[in-house]
Design goal:
7-stranded mixed sheet; FAD/NAD(P)-binding domain; alpha+beta
Amino acid sequence: MPDLRSFDYIIVGGGTAACVLANRLTEDPAVRVLMLEAGPEPTSPWIKMPLAMGKLFTHPILNWGYYTEPEAQLNNRAVFWPRGRVLGGSSSINGSAYVRGHAEDYDGWRRLGNVGWGWSDVQPYFQKMERREYARGESRSGAGMVAVNYPTYVHPITRAFIEAGVRAGLPANDDLNGASSEGISLMPNSVRKGVRQSSVEAYLRPVRSRRNLVVETSAFARRVLMQGRKATGVEYERNDTIQKALATREVILATGAIGSPQILMLSGIGPGRHLQEHGIPVVVDVPGVGENLHDHVYATCTCRTAPENSLNRQLSGLRVIGHAISYYLAKRGPLTNGASQATALARALPDAPCPDLQIVFRPMSYVYDKSARISADPVPRITGGVAYVRPKSRGRLLLKSADPRQAPAMNANYLSVASDEEGLLAGVKIVRRIFQTEPIKSLILGEDSPGDACRTDKDLRDFLHNTAITFCHPSGTCKMGQDAMSVVDERLRVRGVESLRVIDASIMPALPSSGPAPAVFMIAEKGADLIKEGQSPVTTSEGTKAAASAASIRS
């Protein structure tokens, strides 16, 4: 067997958290890091263009294209889950929304026993990493890595939606990432000068030339190499060969809520009986691996408008070519937008302790075919979407086989808890109320979905069961906590395993009440500090001993 290459740290994954970790861990030139990404380099021109996310959601190369198992409460529909399979991960294909969530989200993590993860603990990391160019006064920050801005192109009907939302009872808020995280505003997004601020753009590209950082793309991780209960390296496929690399300090899984639990189980770390069913030797019985899977469930209302009040015709035919030219020459126009132009954090019930709904508005609509491909809608329409963002429903992820190439079985168990359905139902009613409020009311010609015939609560529930989908935020499958089903501790170390951490969206005990991308950046920033706090110099004798032990690693 050829000699194994040796690094201080191996980061499995090249997505949102991984790029942050690669940047921060290699700040010390004496620390050598290998980062493994299953997908290719982010060379597609669609990646930098924010509104081109529709082209990326079903891309056969840049997207894993997962489907859930049939969801019982969604009329046994399998729900399409787009996840990035490219350097930058889902930050390279998502809608670029950037809303931190509510302080209560993180205080809830701390109440579960996760010391150091309350709002007062994590807020400094948000402040450190953000370059908030849209804010004013003390809220403005120009030093961070991730640019956060408001859309530079705003359709007039978007401003009508915001005004209607205020008249319908939502507080106006010019900074949802500021002192108050409730209200309606333009959508803060991670776009700078018209370019998507993926984790590659923000964190990796500036340090890619560091000599102590090795980034390998098209490198598909198969399992963590173990000696007893200690992680010693990674086995992966690249260039049609199985390769191995040694980590003298730690292996860090950062492949997200689907990849990280799958790799743990393939490595013998997970629910023992389930692993035995697939012929995988149990190294450590960790029953919580794959449990606590949850997502934000999402529904939309679409309304017809006059052509000038929708972007649909602007985004098809010859018109979109003109916008593309404007984008490439000057980074102007609607293609600089993320998925939504406006958003609101609201309460399903007035007496809710904090916002539990996220409403989004798009001055356009999409048409989905049976394979979930997105195309321009030929009819001029606008879209109001709503997600219930504090779900209690929990599902699980399990292996289908011991073949690393086979996607796991995923079931989010959407709407299995009655309060989730009640919250989403209330959210749809709020969106409809906004659309029936001036100044947007007079710009709407009619409601196409749910439709004028859908009036009773029963009608709306049927609508949700037939049409609700993912808000693209699966999380929680390697939960951080102190109970028997927790997978990592508050320092993100896998319980019962030495030299192995998970640092990505899978460690969230509960999703924040907004999109999780800002929280994932934060988790990685804090995770890098936790790793550095435990660093000690690797002596020559330790390095020699670790390298010599490579010979004992068996496939």
